[in-house]
Amino acid sequence: MIDAMNSVSGINSSLGMNGVTETRYVNTDRTNAAAAATVDETGQSFTDYFAKMSSDAINTIKQGESASIAGIQGKESVQNVVQAVMDAELTLQSAIAIRNKIVTAYQEVSRMAI
After folding, report:
1. I need a surface site. Which of 14, 19, 77, 105 has the fewest CB within 10 A?
2. 64-82 in b/e burial notation, b at 16+ Cβ within 10 A?
3. Using CA atoms, how far apart are residues 77 and 12, in angstroms rounded to an integer?
4. Beta partners for residue 23, in sequence order
5. Tens digit of pLDDT for each residue in 64-110?
6. Model pLDDT for residues 20-50, shown as the tens digit of each residue
């Protein structure tokens, strides 16, 4: 599971998304279609933001796993283990919910008449 998530985070690892986005259109020739890239006010794209989110999710899940192992070995308190595992569980549930929304959006777009 973690290896599959690592492949997603390999997109890019910088982030600076502060909320407001704008779409910039580049049109070099009137016969060419406009190319759009969504960026925020700091110049970061959605791809950068998504890559940062996925790498943070991977790190949270890894911390939960390492806390569990440390708890089994008696090196970590029960409270810290429970907190780390609950954070990892919440992160995994959020990642699954986002994945489901993306799949639903893709299915809706694929059903559109051309």
Report:
1. 19
2. beebbeebeeeebeeeebe
3. 35
4. 38
5. 999 999 999 999 999 999 999 999 999 999 999 999 999 999 999 99
6. 444 443 444 443 333 345 677 777 888 888 8
DSSP-derived 3-state class of residue 96:
helix
Q: Look up the pTM and report it.
A: 0.59
Q: Are 36 and 25 in contact (CB under 8 A)?
A: yes
d(CA 28, CA 12): 27
Under 8 Å between Cβ of 48 and 12: yes
Cα angle 110, 35, 37 (rounded to 5 degrees) comes to 85
Give me the phi and psi of 74, to 5 degrees please: 85, 15
